[in-house]
Amino acid sequence: GMKMTKITDNFCGYLDVGDDTFAYNVSNHVVTLLPAQIEEAKRYEVLDRIRSRNIDASEYLFGVSDDNCRIAMLRNGKFSGDSFGLNSSIQFGTPIIIKASGNFGDFYNMLTESWDNFHAITFFGGNINALCNPQMAVQRSPLDEYKKMSSSDGAREIKIRPWNDYTRSVDFEIEGEKATLTISVSQTGEANNSENMESYSLGELNSFIRFSFENAQGFDKIAKYYRVVKSLIAILTTQNNISFEVYLSQRNSDNQYFKTGVCKIFDHYENYSARKWHNVIPIYSILDSVPMLIDKIANNEVEPLLALLPEDNTRTKQISITNVQDLCTTLEVAYDWSKRSKEEDLLIAELKRNIKKTIADFIETHNEIDIYKETTISNAFQYLDYTLKQKILTMYDENCDVVDAIISKWSLPQVDEANVGSFVKLRNKKTHSGKIEWGDNANLYTVLLALGYACLFKYIGLSNEVIKPTLLHIF
């Protein structure tokens, strides 16, 4: 078990910027700094230095918290202060705060690397519990046990199954770093809860996703790994507004992980997805393809799909014209994910060759006009490609069994030339044309979003036998 040190919304301490020390106060993600020098003249020197500090590169600033733990805050924006110099405080926004998990000599003696390095980063709880139900760690009593209990003296046993029953690991690579992804359930310690009038808690089970690395990683990698895991969970939840906790660990010589820091990472969401396990994609059902999915996320290939996912629970049932445009973009991109036979693409290439030949013949007989300088003809054919409508119909043909299952589940409109044509036309309507004639298009949106997901899952190597039941979870 482990004690979770939380980072509170407000705290204070000392922070170093360059060679200067400031007293700071943190309120949520805004950090206010005051020069900690006694003489006024020295304070002005310090303020001048911080105001002229080069802030083009982001940096972690280090210091201590009021309870004497080491602290690090990411700064990737500007220091702002009173330009007249009347107010001697400086502010900056921080997206990530890291606090050491201990504050005494013993803690620092345990470290196997400097504190600003980690061997593992763990993301746990929150929306991760839906993707991987922590209940799997509990040994379920057989039914007759419950029957006996109703007439019993209240004695009951709670058994936690052994780690190996529910822990899964898979190796992957991210940005050239060799890593292992582990999914399991952690038990946070039982204790008297002072916030709840000393009720006694048996502790909590939370599912976690952990990246552990062969080589120690610096704090500068945290934002990247967080973004990858957040995107992974968003795709499996079908919403962007998700949350979970994050902490860092180092490995000791016995290959045991111990916690070295807890991270607070700020987001801008009003609320968080409330989707339960039966309404999201269970991570174990696609586990073998997760390394490939992580790779696509890290290379920004999944950005168009992420842009579609709602950021607010009140908007989960609404579709805007922007969503339609984003979905069209996603499908344009998804078309290139498929390993389809390239015969048709060869036909287009042949057409381009024939057009070039026609232009060449034309130039031979008419030298009075410079076709390439004076017309757009070469540009017109450089990008010759299938229409989006045609691409969508092709992708549907390739994934129709999966998509048809969703269509029949909800009696949604068929994917045919007329329907797809009218959907694609929506994209070209200007947003400010007021009311949109949605017609069947709102229902077709769901069908085409499912098609986008089917293409992504095929791209990362899942078979149709897996894709179909998996997508019926979320659609």
Summarize it.
37% of the residues lie in helices and 24% in strands. The chain is an alpha+beta fold.
Strand order, largest beta sheet:
6-7-3-2-1-4-5-8-18-17-9-16-13-12
For the termini, the CA-CA separation is 37 Å
Summarize the amount of helix as a percent range. Answer: 25-40%
Shape: globular
CA gyration radius, whole angstroms: 28 Å
Provide the low-confidence segments as ranges: none
Largest sheet descriptor: 14 strands, antiparallel
Strand content: 15-25%
Number of strands: 18
Kindly state the mean pLDDT as a whole number?
A: 88
Question: What class, by secondary structure content?
Answer: alpha+beta
Count of runs of 4 or more consecutive helical residues: 15
Characterization of this structure:
With 475 residues, this protein is an alpha+beta fold. The protein contains 15 helices and 18 strands. The strands form 3 sheets. Strands 6-7-3-2-1-4-5-8-18-17-9-16-13-12 form a 14-stranded antiparallel sheet. A two-stranded antiparallel ribbon has the order 10-11. It has a two-stranded antiparallel sheet with strand order 14-15. It is globular, with a radius of gyration of 28 Å.
